[in-house]
């Protein structure tokens, strides 16, 4: 009987490890020594981080998994790596991958790509991005404006930071306004730092202006044909992405997803598997949509304004 019990225990352990590994290809399967009933200690960021976990816990989307949420310090990944915390949820995928390489935290992996704070295209002058023959800002012919769609020759203001500029170009490509030499979604340094040199075609002959939005975001919004804004800047000047954006970055496949990170010692832990599945659920996608109206969107369920 003792032999039978030992065999059954091994089979159960293997099944749990395989189930958790299915949440992410980033985690190698090992056996956790943590007690499944213990609360998971999570280093967590602010808006759009903490409240999502609180929603999952309150709604019991991860079953009886208990979470202890702690404000993430600058070195939160180190806390997870050395065992002071179990998980971290406070950073984007590129930030985590860069820090992991720089800080040597090779035991940390992404267990869930949760949500995205999407960049979006706005205009105070034009109503949509429908095909048009209208022109503006041409030195060769007079402006021709017969409708309300973003015209050819429009001046589009975008953030001047490397990441902001790259995300703006990808957004314009997703909206069908420019064509780049690569698709959206890559995580190489080259993918995350595309620039003018990567633009193969501007179907609407846009004049793209890199600007600093720190102090004059609202003035820029009113003075240019269109602007690309991060969601924090957009909401600071009264814009609601779901209502006001002409185009919004997609959630699924977005390399800038905000990620839940765990150490390899927790691979195979059913609590982590349950939490990851909950964060990727339709329920969380709906919570984000109704709570934030496009400021944060699911990385798994397409956002429909």
UniProtKB/TrEMBL annotation:
Record's GO cellular component terms: membrane
Protein localization: Membrane
UniProt topology in membrane: Lipid-anchor
Record's signal peptide: 1-20
SUPFAM superfamilies, per database record: Periplasmic binding protein-like II
Gene3D superfamilies, sorted: Periplasmic binding protein-like II (3.40.190.10)
PROSITE patterns: PROKAR_LIPOPROTEIN (PS51257)
Sorted UniProt keywords: Lipoprotein, Membrane, Palmitate, Signal
Similarity comment: family membership: Belongs to the NlpA lipoprotein family.
Record protein name field: ABC transporter substrate-binding protein
Organism expressing this protein natively: Mycolicibacterium wolinskyi
């Amino acid at each position: 009987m003792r032999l039978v019990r030992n065999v059954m225990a091994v089979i159960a352990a293997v099944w749990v490890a395989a189930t958790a590994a299915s949440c992410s290809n980033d985690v190698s399967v090992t056996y956790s020594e943590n007690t499944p009933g213990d609360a998971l200690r999570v280093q967590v960021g602010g808006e759009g981080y903490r409240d999502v976990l609180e929603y999952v816990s309150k709604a019991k989307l991860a079953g009886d998994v208990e979470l202890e949420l702690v404000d993430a310090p600058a070195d939160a990944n180190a806390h997870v790596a050395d065992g002071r915390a179990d998980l971290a949820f406070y950073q984007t995928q590129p930030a985590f991958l860069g820090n992991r390489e720089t800080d040597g935290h090779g035991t940390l992996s992404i267990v869930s790509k949760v949500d995205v704070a999407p960049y979006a295209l706005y205009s105070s002058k034009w109503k949509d991005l429908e095909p048009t023959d209208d022109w503006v800002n041409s030195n060769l012919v007079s402006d021709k404006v017969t409708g309300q769609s973003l015209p050819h020759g429009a001046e589009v203001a975008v953030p001047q930071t490397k990441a902001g500029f790259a995300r703006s170009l990808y957004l314009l490509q997703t909206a069908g306004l420019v064509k780049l030499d690569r698709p959206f979604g890559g995580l190489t340094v080259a993918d995350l730092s595309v620039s003018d040199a990567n633009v193969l075609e501007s179907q609407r002959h846009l004049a793209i202006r890199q600007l600093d939005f720190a102090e004059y975001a609202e003035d820029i919004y009113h003075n240019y044909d269109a602007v690309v804004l991060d969601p924090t800047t957009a909401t600071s000047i009264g814009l609601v992405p779901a209502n006001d954006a002409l185009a919004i970055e997609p959630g699924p496949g977005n390399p800038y997803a905000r990620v839940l990170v765990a150490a390899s010692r927790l691979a195979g832990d059913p609590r982590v598997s349950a939490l990851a599945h909950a964060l990727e659920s339709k329920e969380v996608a709906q919570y984000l949509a109704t709570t934030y109206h496009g400021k944060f969107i699911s990385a798994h369920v397409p956002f429909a304004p």
